[in-house]
Amino acid sequence: MSIQAFLDFGKSLQRNGKTFCEKASCNFLRKELPVRLANIIKEIHLLPESLICQPSTQIVQGWYEKSFAELITYEQADLTNDAIVSRFTQDLIKIRNRHNLVVETMAQGVVELSRGSEDKRIMVDSVTRDSIQYFLDRFYMMRISIRMLINQHTILFGGELPFSAGHVGTIDPECDIQLVVEDAFASARSLCENFYEQSPELKMTCINTVNREEPLKIVYVPSHLFHISFELFKNAMRATCEKGGASLSLPPIEVVIVKTTEDVAIKMSDQGGGIPQRNMPQLFEYMFSTAPSPVDAGTSVNVVPMAGYGYGLPLSRLYARYFHGDLQVYSIHGFGTDAVIYLKTLSESASEFLPVFNKSVMKQYSSTRTHGWSSSKFSHLVEWG
Ligand SMILES: N#Cc1c[nH]c2ncccc12
């Protein structure tokens, strides 16, 4: 699906009526969702045994198998029966809620796997680490897509409130990029003030090369952009405050937003001291992100505001990539870091970027790790839709 397709379907309610559209949506989802769940379940079976056998991984696997079993009961259901269609919508809400803690629970599975060694990167061999990185990127991207499909249906037909008036499900046809980014900054700043008792200012520049006087708006999911921006601002503020110490004046976080006919780019620049180049690959590594500190040993995955990078960056990159955007982080050690969010300007170009499940995926779970620019590092890119 593209964002435009989601939008067109939502807008067709006025033309075709809610009942007709709910049945059409139900008919699509009762086929599409089991396919996406089945692909995830089959890929979980390809995981290293050392991760599959972990108690938390078993819990997640059980949630997916139960949800799949529930959805396929609708495969031949009579959708002319309003009660069945209504029950389907309620079951979707139940399934979505069942999966609310998948990220934390899967992260706990990774912690259970790597628990006990001082340096997580030694105890878990490189092939296992690569397999887990490859799997989790695909697994969480599919989860984002499944929740998007469910949310669109339950907001349009399940009586759940849209985020705001004028929205079509979770989509804002006129998403004001500047406002969402400013909102995320304010939320991160509040967290920063509570933690560091100080916070950097925001210096924002907006350039609309398409319509110079117009606000920078695109068709997008505001909650996705907020999630990404909030995470990046937290990291930038943490670096700025920790470098600045108790100094009275912190350097501002500078944001430049540019909209062209092709892309929207949102660059966030801080003077937080930057990241050594040797550490850059770890920014997006799930294994490194969940390397438990001593205080975490034996406990659940700690999510401490402003601490570590956690899963925030890898997940934020998936949200950006979900509608064919991206997230890149560039850093100059000793000075600061630029994080750039790229989004598609045209909703027709913003189609779901989903993992493809085929035989060559198997290779990724058994390929040996090569050093340097291994082809396998990018082979998964050919395994995405
Ligand atoms: N994302 C992000 C970051 C933005 N600034 C940073 N400084 C140190 C480490 C990570 C970051």
UniProtKB/TrEMBL annotation:
Residue ranges the record marks as coiled coil: none
Pfam families hit by this protein: BCDHK_Adom3, HATPase_c
One GO molecular-function entry: pyruvate dehydrogenase (acetyl-transferring) kinase activity
Subcellular location: Mitochondrion matrix
Catalyzed chemical reaction(s): L-seryl-[pyruvate dehydrogenase E1 alpha subunit] + ATP = O-phospho-L-seryl-[pyruvate dehydrogenase E1 alpha subunit] + ADP + H(+)
GO cellular component terms listed in the entry, alphabetical order: mitochondrial matrix
Organism superkingdom: Eukaryota
Major enzyme class: transferase
Protein name: Protein-serine/threonine kinase
Naturally occurring in which organism (per UniProt): Hypsibius exemplaris (Freshwater tardigrade)
